[in-house]
Amino acid sequence: MRILKRLGYMTENLYWTQYVKVISNMAGVKINTQGFINRLNRIEKKLDSIPWDKTAQVVLNSVRQNFELGGRYSQPKNPMGGASKWTPRKDSSSHKILKKSGALQAANKIEVHKNGFAILNKLEYQAVHNFGYPKMNIPARPFLVVQENDMKDMKVVITNHIKSW
Q1: What pLDDT digit, counting tens, does each position of 99-113 carry?
Q2: What is the pTM of this model?
Q3: 78 φ/ψ angles, rounded to the nearest 5 degrees
């Protein structure tokens, strides 16, 4: 038990006291780590099956909200969100910016992979609006950005998945 007490922080955080059995015999102390190894194997399996679809949905909802609020970005070409709003239009149109037909917002789709996901928009002109096009005097209006609270929500989805045994 002295060895386990020396590990201190590790024994508490890795739950060694629950999974490591100390067996005494005449030759000394043996540590049976099979329970601990089994737990690590279960965690590894959980990591191989992270619900990327749910995680991606958090981001897609955020992108949709960017359209509703007229932008939430930190700076052009930065995928992290912020408090900046899109540059107002110069004409007097009554529709919200980037929402004339709704096609640009509706074209944002989720693509889930084994080890992650992507939010895709396959419209030809999406990059012009997301990154801007100075030659045509079109300002960047980043809509494919993620807010800090979205990062926390994704972490909750993944953490809850790993903790569910």
Answers
A1: 999 999 999 999 999
A2: 0.72
A3: -110, 125
